[in-house]
Amino acid sequence: DVKVTQSSRYLVKRTGEKVFLECVQDMDHENMFWYRQDPGLGLRLIYFSYDVKMKEKGDIPEGYSVSREKKERFSLILESASTNQTSMYLCASSLGQVYTDTQYFGPGTRLTVL
Amino acid sequence: AQSVAQPEDQVNVAEGNPLTVKCTYSVSGNPYLFWYVQYPNRGLQFLLKYITGDNLVKGSYGFEAEFNKSQTSFHLKKPSALVSDSALYFCAVRDPNAGNNRKLIWGLGTSLAVNP
After folding, report:
1. Closest partner residue to B44 among A44, A50, A105, by Cβ?
2. Of A3, A34, A57, A99, which to mutate for an interface test with B (greatest number of B Cβ within 10 Å)?
3. pLDDT tens string A54-78
4. Of the candidates A41, A44, A94, which has its C-beta nearest B102's C-beta?
5. How far apart are CA B109 and CA B115, in angstroms?
6. B46 and A103 in contact by Cβ < 8 A?
7. Does B45 reach chain A within 8 Å, measured CB to CB?
8. Do residues A71 and A28 make contact, with C-beta atoms less than 8 angstroms apart?
9. Structure letter (DSSP) for residue B52
């Protein structure tokens, strides 16, 4: 089975802090994604990566950056956390360049910014 | 523009009754369609997908979905609901004509409550 893990289930940070969210997948998937999930807004794509060191902006990239130095690891960075970034963050991965591929999700990180 | 609509924020059904969670889509070509489920305090889990072929797709946990091209719908169904099916359900679509684009377009989710 595909396993996608996220570094923390719950995280509390202060406004202005730099925040790192880590995601690791163990199935050699090419594609990795970061979403945020908010009530009434569904899933919104922040960034995705289709190869090591490659990234593309999603629908809401402002205030975020990403890093993919190794194939299995995709990091989401909040350069200066703000209260409006309080949310559930979900990481996902999918196999390759076949667009029918299923996305597999991690358990999520609930981030609270005070 | 590509879009997905889940017209019901919440669906309530009694245990043992059939359930339907609705999804309609708008894409320019023949769509790839997905259903995911999110149990409380968990990440999303894949249920089923339609790519091509038989319009009736069977998935995990006894769920199935029917692709209806004329109605641009992909409703999720189960013949007999269980209390443990209570969860948040998401429909997603990808337009195969969208080029080198691995993004899915997501619905806002439907909360299913199955009452004992």
Report:
1. A105
2. A99
3. 899 998 999 999 999 999 999 999 9
4. A94
5. 19
6. yes
7. yes
8. yes
9. S
Q: Which residue of B has its CA nearest to A96?
A: B102
Q: What does the alpha-carbon distance between residue A3 and residue B113 come to, in Å, rounded to a whole number?
A: 28
List, as one string, the DSSP characters of B15-42: TTS-EEE--EEE-SSSPEEEEEEE-TTS
Dist CA A108 CA A28 (whole Å) = 20
How far is the CA of B51 from the CAs of A97, B42, B48, in angstroms? 15, 26, 10
Rounded distance between C-alpha atoms, residue B4 and residue B54, angstroms: 21
In sequence order, which residues have a C-beta less than 8 Å from that of residue B83 and are 6 or more positions away? B15, B114, B115, B116
At residue A83, the 3 state secondary structure works out as helix
CB contact under 8 A, B32 and A100: yes
Over the stretch B50-88, which tens digit does the pLDDT of each residue have? 988 899 999 999 999 999 999 999 999 999 999 999 999
Q: How far apart are CA A65 and CA A77, in angstroms?
A: 5
User: How far is B82 from chain A, CA to nearest CA, in Å?
Assistant: 23
Which two three-digit tokens encode residue B27? 């894409």
Per-residue DSSP letter, A30: S
Q: Given A40, A42, A48, which is nearest B103 (Cβ)?
A: A48
